[in-house]
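Re: the multi-chain job from yesterday

Posting the exact lines I submitted so nobody has to dig through the queue logs.
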Amino acid sequence: MVFFFDLVIGGLAIGACYALVALAMVIIYKTSEVPNFAQGEMAMISAFVAYALIESYGVGFWTAAGLTLLFALCLGVVLELAFLRPAKNPNILGLIVITLGAEMILYGLAGWKWGANQHPFPVPFSEYGGVTYADVIITEINIWTFVTSLVMMLLLFLFFRYTKLGTAMKAVQQNVFAAKAMGIPTRRILTFTWGLSSVTGAVAGMLIAPIATLDPNMMLDPLLKGFAGAVLGGMTSLPGAALGGYMLGLIENFFGGYVSLEFKSVVAFAVIVLVLCVKPSGLLVRHFERKV
Amino acid sequence: MKRGIFSAVIMICTLMTLGVPNAVMSADAVRGVTDSEILIGQWGPQTGPAALWGTVGRATGVYFDLLNSEGGIHGRKIKYFNRDDAYQPMKTKAIVKEFVENIGVFGVVGGVGTSTGMAVRDYLAEHKVPWVSPATGSSHWSQPFQKYIFATFPQYHQEAYVLTEYAVEKLGKKKIAFFYQNDDYGKEGLTGAKQYLESKGMTLAAEVPVEVTDTDLKTHALKLKESGAEVVIMWVLPKHGAIILGVSKAIGFSPQWISCSTLSDPDLMFNVTKGLWKGVMYANFVNMESPNIKKYLEAQKKFAPNEKYTGLFFLAGFYFAEPMVEGLRRAGKDLTVDSFVKAMETIEGWNDWLGYNCTFTATDHQGVKSVYMEQCGDDGARIKITDWLVYKGK
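And the result, structure tokens for all chains:
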């Protein structure tokens, strides 16, 4: 039974990270229908920035985390302005290829600046100690991961529900032309979407870095899993993506624990295939036919 | 206009194909050997996921610079070509073609990566290119016998065999688990461990595979814990070594960890694991007490002052190239591929390098079969805990 609960804790901890990556992807996908494949490397670069601030400049963890979020916001905005906006007559495929290009540039940049080896990511809470309840250990970092991801989701919910900017973003997501007609600066909103998504990704990056050790390849696996989580829950639904991320973390851990460790990392992709066959728009999204 | 360009391209291509063999294959000259130079190549991951090991190729360059500054070998300087394959076998193929068909190298040295090396092994053999020290412990380099390959990296299965032997006989442990990367690298280690245990009528407490891309290793740690293992032997990437120690500690599992020589840089591992690496035992095949080390690190300051990392993998770049240079010395002034192979096969019980007891014979080109063990101490210090352990299995 302890084994079961250990798996649940592990699944929820990694699921929280997947959920944040999934949210970051969905925020952009909803507005532009582009899955942003640079998301992982944007998060990785942000984590590296936090690392550099703490290690090289001696900045305290919380200040560094704050500055990193600011950096992430700028990074998202700059990427949108520099890469996506200049695209002439963009179609979805073209934009996806652009995000892939941005991914390679960021990956190369990190390798050049910080090298390919692993770096220890310092955190102000214990990675090994924590609360023990009936032989099941929940480490401080697990607790932080749950809390941070839940707070982040709550903030996103409040932002989209109650702020003017959030409402404007939703309007752009629903109908660009109508939003434009209502006087919403749609291009600027799109740019900001990238910033917001980048910030969400950066939080995920800083939560994953202490677990996975920091290196340029750090986000490769979480990005794919986050994407799978988003597909599972629905690419156009924020709660769906979050739920998908958590579910994937749990499914993966149970599969690894009870069925086969060898195929643990493949199960995410089996889930994608299954969902695309049975409910292509995801668990929490009502399927609709697009009429020309 | 188009036709003009077309014929120009044809002409250039013709000139290139005719010109190159003339340049490198005149009369009875030996490929890659002139009166003043010997051409040697190496590939390795300077970029990409395995770029940490790119330092091997750069260190070999420092070694050759040092040799050249001391006058070279029999009056010939070494001209060295270090190429980046980003750990991709397709690129390695292209590089080796360039080495053989365009540059015309005498031989190749090192070369990190099993799959990258396997992509070019047969091509090199076909062109009779001597290849000294493939930089991985795969058994493919010496089994079946390869006339032109000289392996100096102890084979993974031999290494795992002696490490398991140590755990059972010296540490007196009975429950041994194996944590391995789910590919040739990890599986060869697994074979060695099983081979030893079978010879003693024992079995592994658990076999836990990990995929290269995995980052969440909690399930793996739980499986290891569930097996009740006292010793866990790992055959994984440095990254996975670091992660598994962290998650294991978080679930209250602390066996004696023993690691393959690919994780033999305690300073690096201690740093990445925030100190958890202390107490881990690992194999090493680079003799850290050799007087050559001081000389090589001084050469690094002179020839490659910008090199950030000068740990074990850097030293391995010297280790891999030393036997080749010894062979070139023994082959004498009249250097040909055959004279070089013959000279290499005279190397017996050779210890004047960073390795131990290098021996090549006409039927066995696996030059090194021993490792010794160290344990990580405070602040990543190396503590030598065994003498050389020689593989005695079949």
